[in-house]
């Protein structure tokens, strides 16, 4: 196996493992569109990274976090509904990113690689980022798990019970931003949300507890990454979309199985 | 417990809440006491939930003071809890997110509300009444000095409502906590409340249930003719509400006591 494929596989598995539990929160809290918006702003982060000559991963995390904070602030006004706001931000940040990259004169950027992911672009250095960021995300999730579940059930109830709601909500956004930066090279900006939500949605069919769903989502995500990369290798299909198609196949298979008859009923 | 009566748990003094130019509640003062059940009644849009949210500390009043006993533990039961179907959750796991990991306390709370058999069931399959009991159990897990219940009998049939109110009285007797609850109609809640506050943005009248039910402003608001009917838990409603709160046709089982 060539090195670059190995790097892609290891990186992809790392991303799938953190995307499982976080994707479950995205599904439970109906944040899919929010995730999409953050992901689209990643391209602006890439442009800014080139412009300011700083580490691209750092620039992506920073731009995602800034956008998340901006969204929280803008949601307080009531003239524009949240989904409209998300739509405006998603497409504006993507367009701003594309325009900014076009204006960068001395940098040649492989846009397709950022939009749809590129196997060849994974370097050992990216793996440090993925696993360093991933470990941080997992540790934080582990520590904050019960609080995050509590605010997912009901934020007001959690607040009365003494859970630091605002801080946890912000942390969750930050974690999603880290995952987006990590997943960008594997599946690309336009497809990141699918890696968050499809495995989690598939896992729902088999789960009776939130923990089961998070773990299964990670597992199904890993399978999708492995399957997608294999398909990409043998049939020369684009890697990111192949991973997403594999995840879709898992989803369709799981939802067409008559699981109740097998004695597994979702809780 | 009687010696704890009249010990204040929380006090609101001349509280206003405004959203923009809109006065949601105005000049409301009240005290909540240990061992005492206080019921808020009033029409839709009267600001009952807003007032409760002020007591809970979820909104800050635009004017006025809110005092809570230092170390006050509040058990809160929200009006409605929507948990997304995509969230796989058993009753047990739901209760275990309530910041009290003690399994014995969990079982005790469920037993107290008569719902111990629901422990391993999915939260999504519960009936309205079962869900209310589970929410009440969660509130009890906070070991509260003050229980705050926002329409605790919503979506529960009439027999279930009577039972739930009895249960709330029993919890008050056993634990000696104060209770603040919102109710839509006085007649069911009468026997299990010590103090009634009838409000429509401001306090219209307050006092013992019998007192309030004969107060002109109460009668004007609810159109209930006379206290003697109330005492028998029946009065002349010209309509009923279904589980969603919609008005349904006059029913022939309207009991008349003339």
From TrEMBL, chain A:
<keyword id="KW-1003">Cell membrane</keyword>
<feature type="transmembrane region" description="Helical">
    <location>
        <begin position="172"/>
        <end position="201"/>
    </location>
</feature>
<feature type="transmembrane region" description="Helical">
    <location>
        <begin position="126"/>
        <end position="145"/>
    </location>
</feature>
<dbReference type="GO" id="GO:0006829">
    <property type="term" value="P:zinc ion transport"/>
</dbReference>
<dbReference type="GO" id="GO:0055085">
    <property type="term" value="P:transmembrane transport"/>
</dbReference>
<dbReference type="InterPro" id="IPR037294">
    <property type="entry name" value="ABC_BtuC-like"/>
</dbReference>
<keyword id="KW-0864">Zinc transport</keyword>
<keyword id="KW-0472">Membrane</keyword>
<protein>
    <recommendedName>
        <fullName>High-affinity zinc uptake system membrane protein ZnuB</fullName>
    </recommendedName>
</protein>
<comment type="similarity">
    <text>Belongs to the ABC-3 integral membrane protein family.</text>
</comment>
<dbReference type="GO" id="GO:0043190">
    <property type="term" value="C:ATP-binding cassette (ABC) transporter complex"/>
</dbReference>
<feature type="transmembrane region" description="Helical">
    <location>
        <begin position="85"/>
        <end position="105"/>
    </location>
</feature>
<feature type="transmembrane region" description="Helical">
    <location>
        <begin position="241"/>
        <end position="259"/>
    </location>
</feature>
<comment type="function">
    <text>Involved in the high-affinity zinc uptake transport system.</text>
</comment>
<keyword id="KW-0812">Transmembrane</keyword>
<keyword id="KW-0813">Transport</keyword>
<keyword id="KW-1133">Transmembrane helix</keyword>
<keyword id="KW-0862">Zinc</keyword>
<feature type="transmembrane region" description="Helical">
    <location>
        <begin position="40"/>
        <end position="73"/>
    </location>
</feature>
<keyword id="KW-0997">Cell inner membrane</keyword>
<dbReference type="GO" id="GO:0010043">
    <property type="term" value="P:response to zinc ion"/>
</dbReference>
<keyword id="KW-0406">Ion transport</keyword>
TrEMBL record, chain B:
<dbReference type="InterPro" id="IPR027417">
    <property type="entry name" value="P-loop_NTPase"/>
</dbReference>
<dbReference type="GO" id="GO:0005524">
    <property type="term" value="F:ATP binding"/>
</dbReference>
<keyword id="KW-0862">Zinc</keyword>
<keyword id="KW-0547">Nucleotide-binding</keyword>
<feature type="domain" description="ABC transporter">
    <location>
        <begin position="10"/>
        <end position="225"/>
    </location>
</feature>
<keyword id="KW-1278">Translocase</keyword>
<keyword id="KW-0472">Membrane</keyword>
<keyword id="KW-1003">Cell membrane</keyword>
<keyword id="KW-0067">ATP-binding</keyword>
<keyword id="KW-0997">Cell inner membrane</keyword>
<dbReference type="InterPro" id="IPR050153">
    <property type="entry name" value="Metal_Ion_Import_ABC"/>
</dbReference>
<dbReference type="GO" id="GO:0010043">
    <property type="term" value="P:response to zinc ion"/>
</dbReference>
<keyword id="KW-0813">Transport</keyword>
<keyword id="KW-0864">Zinc transport</keyword>
<dbReference type="InterPro" id="IPR017871">
    <property type="entry name" value="ABC_transporter-like_CS"/>
</dbReference>
<dbReference type="InterPro" id="IPR003439">
    <property type="entry name" value="ABC_transporter-like_ATP-bd"/>
</dbReference>
<keyword id="KW-0406">Ion transport</keyword>
<dbReference type="GO" id="GO:0006829">
    <property type="term" value="P:zinc ion transport"/>
</dbReference>
<dbReference type="Pfam" id="PF00005">
    <property type="entry name" value="ABC_tran"/>
</dbReference>
<protein>
    <submittedName>
        <fullName>Zinc import ATP-binding protein ZnuC</fullName>
    </submittedName>
</protein>
<dbReference type="InterPro" id="IPR003593">
    <property type="entry name" value="AAA+_ATPase"/>
</dbReference>
<dbReference type="GO" id="GO:0016887">
    <property type="term" value="F:ATP hydrolysis activity"/>
</dbReference>
């Amino acid at each position: 196996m060539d090195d670059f494929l190995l790097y892609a596989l290891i990186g992809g598995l790392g991303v799938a493992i953190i995307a499982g539990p976080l994707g479950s929160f995205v599904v439970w809290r109906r944040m899919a569109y929010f995730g999409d918006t953050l992901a689209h702003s990643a391209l602006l982060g890439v442009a800014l990274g080139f412009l300011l000559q700083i580490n691209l991963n750092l620039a992506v995390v920073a731009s995602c976090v800034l956008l998340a904070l901006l969204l929280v602030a803008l949601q307080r006004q009531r003239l524009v509904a949240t989904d409209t706001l998300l739509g405006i931000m998603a497409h504006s940040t993507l367009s701003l990113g594309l325009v900014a990259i076009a204006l960068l004169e001395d940098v040649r950027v492989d846009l397709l690689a950022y939009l749809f992911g590129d196997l060849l672009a994974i370097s050992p250095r990216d793996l440090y980022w993925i696993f360093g960021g991933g470990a941080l995300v997992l540790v934080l999730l582990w520590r904050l798990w019960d609080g995050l579940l509590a605010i997912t059930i009901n934020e007001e109830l959690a607040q009365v019970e003494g859970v630091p709601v605002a801080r946890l909500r912000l942390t969750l956004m930050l974690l999603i931003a880290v995952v987006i930066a990590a997943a960008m090279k594997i599946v690309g900006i336009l497809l990141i949300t699918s890696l968050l939500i499809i495995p989690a949605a598939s896992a729902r069919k088999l789960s009776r507890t939130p923990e089961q769903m998070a773990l299964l989502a990670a597992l199904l995500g890993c399978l999708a990454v492995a399957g997608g990369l294999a398909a990409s290798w043998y049939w020369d299909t684009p890697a990111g979309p192949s991973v997403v198609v594999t995840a879709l196949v898992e989803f369709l298979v799981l939802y067409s199985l008559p699981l109740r008859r097998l004695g597994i009923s979702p809780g | 417990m009687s010696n704890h009566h009249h010990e204040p748990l929380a006090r609101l003094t001349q509280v206003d809440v405004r959203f923009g130019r809109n006065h949601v509640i105005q000049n409301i003062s009240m005290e909540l006491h240990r061992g005492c059940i206080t019921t808020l009644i009033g029409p839709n849009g009267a600001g009952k939930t807003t007032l409760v949210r002020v007591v809970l500390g979820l909104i800050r009043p635009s004017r006025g003071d809110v005092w809570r006993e230092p170390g006050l533990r509040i058990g809160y039961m929200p009006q409605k809890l929507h948990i997304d179907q995509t969230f796989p959750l058993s009753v047990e796991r739901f209760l275990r997110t309530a910041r009290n990991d003690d399994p014995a306390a969990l079982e005790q709370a469920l037993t107290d509300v008569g719902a111990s058999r629901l422990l391993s069931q999915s939260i999504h399959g519960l009936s309205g009444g079962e869900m209310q009991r589970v929410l009440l159990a969660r509130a009890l897990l906070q070991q509260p000095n003050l229980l705050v219940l926002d329409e605790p009998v919503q979506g529960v049939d009439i027999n279930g409502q009577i039972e739930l109110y009895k249960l709330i009285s029993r919890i008050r007797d056993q634990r000696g906590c104060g209770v603040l609850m919102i109710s839509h109609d006085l007649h069911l809640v009468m026997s299990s409340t010590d103090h009634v506050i009838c409000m429509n943005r401001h306090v219209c009248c307050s006092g013992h249930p019998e007192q309030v039910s004969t107060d002109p402003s109460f009668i004007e608001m609810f159109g209930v003719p006379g206290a003697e009917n109330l005492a028998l838990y029946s009065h002349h409603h010209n309509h009923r509400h279904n589980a969603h709160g919609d008005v349904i046709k006059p029913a022939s089982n309207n009991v008349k006591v003339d």
